[in-house]
Design brief:
The chain is 52% helix and 15% strand. Strands 1, 2, 3, 4 and 5 form a 5-stranded parallel sheet that branches.
């Protein structure tokens, strides 16, 4: 799966001019922003791509930047990413799908040519309020007071979060 994703991105790079956040097409730029649901998932993707030389091939086409789990470092990484987009014909940014990363949402239009969301950005299963809401919805559904169960809401919430994130990054 990760190898196929990497090969698809490699093929895409040849057609997208500018920066790649794995977003929309602009002339002479290739920008891909790839967002994974967690740092561990992102690490797995990078590990598989490195093992199969896909990461090196991507980096040979456009500089690849990987989000740090430290906000100050991520700000610097995004600044370098945006510099390459504006001055070197494009770049690739790999990060996690989080609505909390305000720096990612403030990238220039040129830096948002292609967005690829990998996985679904579910809220943490251990969140007490999340579990409380799911339990309440399950009770209400069981009593006929709600048409949506806790699990159904959890799925819908993740889809909403993915769409909201994509819309904010693309600038809709």
């Amino acid at each position: 799966m990760f190898i196929d994703l990497g090969n698809s991105i490699l093929e895409t790079l040849n057609y997208i001019p500018g920066g790649v956040i794995i977003l929309s097409k602009l002339p002479n730029l290739t920008i891909i922003i790839l967002l994974a649901p967690s740092y561990s998932f992102l690490g797995t993707i990078i590990s598989v791509w490195t093992k199969h030389s896909l990461f090196i091939k991507m980096n040979n086409i456009k500089n690849v930047y990987v989000e740090s789990n430290r906000p100050a470092a991520t700000k610097k990484i995004l600044d370098n990413f945006e510099f390459d987009v504006e001055n070197k014909g494009g770049a690739i940014f790999l990060g996690i799908s989080s609505l909390e990363n305000k720096d990612l949402l403030q990238l220039s239009d040129q830096s948002r040519n292609c967005l690829i969301l990998v996985g679904v950005p579910y809220r943490p299963w251990t969140d007490f309020r999340l579990r409380l809401k799911m339990d309440l919805l399950n009770v209400m559904a069981h009593e006929g007071l709600s048409k949506v169960t806790g699990n159904q809401w959890y799925q819908q919430d993740a889809s909403r979060r993915a769409n909201l994130l994509a819309g904010k990054i693309i600038g809709i």
